Amino acid sequence: MANTVDEQLATMLANIPEKTGRALPEWLRLISSVDLEKHGQIVKFLKSEHGVTHGFANLIASKALESGDEIDLVSAQYAGPKAALRPLHDQIVKFALSLGDDVEIAPKKASVSLRRKKQFALITPATKTRIDLGLALKGETAEGRLQVGNAMCSHKIRLESATDLDGEVKDWITKAYQRSG
Length: 181
What we know:
Layout (H helix, E strand, L loop, with lengths): L4 H16 L3 H10 L5 H12 L3 H12 L7 H5 L8 H13 L5 E4 L4 E4 L3 E9 L2 E6 L11 E2 L6 E5 L7 H13 L2
Antiparallel strand pairs: 1-2, 2-3, 3-4, 4-6, 5-6
Helix pairs in contact: 2-4, 3-4
């Protein structure tokens, strides 16, 4: 019997095909085709539409929302008309990773979260010509390029080209990173 959490997880992953009738990659492809973005939505879908038990539905939903080779969420975000924004996205990620070895990159269906202990930035390809860079900078005055954000990030900066990722923007990213630790 599996004793550690890692051993239990490995056992559950190995048992997905037998217990659910499909291998994990099949579930991941199915989930990506139904346009569900939230963990709870995916769990509900798996349980109600496919009879998956709660434990396995929870595990499959978690895997569907992780970054990984099974589903390349970032490539999907920058496919088609938004393809020209991918180099800018990659530059933002590269800079964020340079801030410390504790930066976690967490792709979602429509955005990429940058986290430490909590999210400090959110990269969203908003249009075919613009990335909205959300930043957790609660308490900062929104002025100039630093605009009011939303519930997920208090502020945002609109970026259209690599030249927009300048010292000012990098300073704001750094400040958000430092606050998230």
